Amino acid sequence: MVRSSRFAAWLVSAASLAVVASGCNTAPKTASTGNLPQKTPAAATKPAPEPPEFMFGKDLKDPVKVHLAYGTWHEQDGNLAEARISYDKVLQKNPKNVDAMMGLARLDIAMGRLDDAEKRLAKARKIAPKDSKVAVSYGQYFSAKGDWPRALEYMKEATELAPYDTACAYHLGYVQAKSGDLTSALASFTTAVGAAQAEYNLAYIMHEQGNLLQAEEHLHKSIALKPDLAQAQTLLITIRQQRSNTKPQVAQMQGTPSNRVQAASYSEPSQPLRSAFDPVPGGR
C-alpha cells in the first residue's frame, strides 16, 4: 500500500517530466536527452524509483494518463523497451497524444534512430506548434546530431513559448554551454537551478570537454556558494585525481629529441555522474 501511494504521488507530477538525461547527464539514465547520446550536467545517481504495484485494468478512470506515467517512469529508470510499450499503448488509445509522441522520439534518439525521431517530432509539431516541450525535444534532436546552432534555435524558441519554465531555461543553458557561450549558459542555469548548481553544471561540461582547469575554477565558485553541494565536492576530487595522474611522457626513441613531451589523455571517472537532462536538485 505504501509503495502504491508513492507511485500515486509520482503520477501526479509525471506530466512535468515529459522532457526528461540526462543531464547534463542528458538525458537523462533516461532517454531524454538523458539520456540521449550526450552526457549532460546533472546530480549524482539517485536510487531508482520503486515500481508501481497495480496493474492496468478496466476499472482505471484514465488509462492514457497511467500508461503515459508508466512510460515516463520506465524511461527515467533506463528501461527503454518497457517505456516504448507504454508510450505505444497511449497512442493506441489516443493517436494524437503529443507527450507519447515525444517520449517515443526521445527513445528513438537514444537508440540512434534519428530519422524515426524526426518523423515523430514533425507530427507532434503539426499537432502542437506552440508547445514548448516539442521545441525542447527538437532541440534535443539537433543536439544528438551535433548541430548546435539549430539546437540553440529551438531551445530559444522553447524559452520564448514558456519564459517562466525552469526546465526550458535549463535545456537552453546546456546548449549555450555546448555552443561555447558560457556567460549566457551561466545565466540560464542560474535561472533554472540556482547560482551554485549553475557553476557546477558549467564545471561538469568543462570536465566533459577535458578543460580541467576551467572546470576546477567553476567548482570552487560552486562550493563557495553552497559548501554542502556533494556533487561539486565529488567532481572536484575526481578532477584533482585526474590532474595528478596526467604526467608528461618523454619520448626516448632513436632519432627523437629526449625533451619532446607527449600529452597524456584524460581518463573518465570510474563512477561518472548521472547523465540526464534533469536540473541539479536542491533549488536556489
Describe this structure in words.
It is built from twelve helices and two strands; from the N terminus they run ααααααααααααββ. Mean pLDDT is 75; it is low at 1-40, 42-47 and 249-284. The protein has a two-stranded antiparallel ribbon. The chain is elongated. The relative contact order is 0.15. Helix content is 57%, strand content 1%. It has helices at 2-12, 63-76, 80-93, 98-110, 114-127, 132-144, 148-161, 166-178, 182-193, 195-208, 212-225, 230-245; strands spanning 249-250, 261-262. It has a domain at 19-43 and 58-165: Serine Threonine Protein Phosphatase 5, Tetratricopeptide repeat, CATH 1.25.40.10.
List keywords for this structure.
disordered N terminus, disordered C terminus, 284 residues, 2 strands, 12 helices, Serine Threonine Protein Phosphatase 5, Tetratricopeptide repeat
Average pLDDT metric: 75
- Helicity range of the residues? 55-70%
CATH top level of the domain at 19-43 and 58-165 is Mainly Alpha
Instruction: Note the beta-strand portion.
Output: under 5%
**Rg on CA atoms, Å:** 21 Å
Count helical runs. 12
Named at the architecture level, the CATH assignment of the domain at 19-43 and 58-165 is: Alpha Horseshoe
CATH fold title of the domain at 19-43 and 58-165? Serine Threonine Protein Phosphatase 5, Tetratricopeptide repeat
The total strand number stands at 2
Unreliable stretches (pLDDT < 50, length at least 5) are 1-40, 42-47, 249-284
Cα separation of the termini: 34 Å
Superfamily at the CATH H level of the domain at 19-43 and 58-165? Tetratricopeptide repeat domain
Coarse morphology: elongated
Largest sheet: 2 strands, antiparallel
**What structural category arises from helix and sheet content?**
mainly alpha
Strand order, sheet with most strands: 1-2
The helix/strand series, from N terminus to C terminus, equals: HHHHHHHHHHHHEE
